[in-house]
Amino acid sequence: MSDLFTLKNKVIIVTGGTGVLGRSFVRGIANAGGTVIVIGQNQERANAITEEVNNNGGTALSILANVLDEEQLIAARELI
């Protein structure tokens, strides 16, 4: 299946990545070879999902931000 669909060399940002649905997106993206940026408001959950991805051979970064706060999103963009 990995030959049919790949996200290798792609960076994907998942807002709400600390929620149930977001976590599923993060796992799917990582399984397809993409680098995942997890943006959420819960640092503990964000760290847990990025640690899971990184420990399983993927690449993930967590950023604490509220998507309704423009300044936080600009700071996240600069970090990415």
Question: Can you characterise this structure?
Answer:
With 80 residues, the protein is of the alpha/beta class. The chain is 44% helix and 21% strand. The chain has a 3-stranded parallel β-sheet with strand order 1-2-3, covered by helices on one side. The model has no long low-confidence stretch (mean pLDDT 94).
Q: What is the overall silhouette?
A: globular
The portion of residues forming beta strands comes to: 15-25%
Helix/strand order = EHEHEH
Runs in which pLDDT lies below 50 for 5 or more consecutive residues are none
Strand order of the largest sheet: 1-2-3
User: What is the helical fraction, as a range of percent?
Assistant: 40-55%
Briefly note the structural class of the backbone.
alpha/beta
Mean pLDDT: 94
- List how many beta strands DSSP finds: 3
Q: Radius of gyration over alpha carbons?
A: 12 Å
Largest sheet: 3 strands, parallel
Distance between the termini: 29 Å
- Total of helices: 3
Give a short synopsis of this structure:
By secondary structure, the chain is an alpha/beta fold. The protein contains three helices and three strands; from the N terminus they run E-H-E-H-E-H. The termini are far apart.
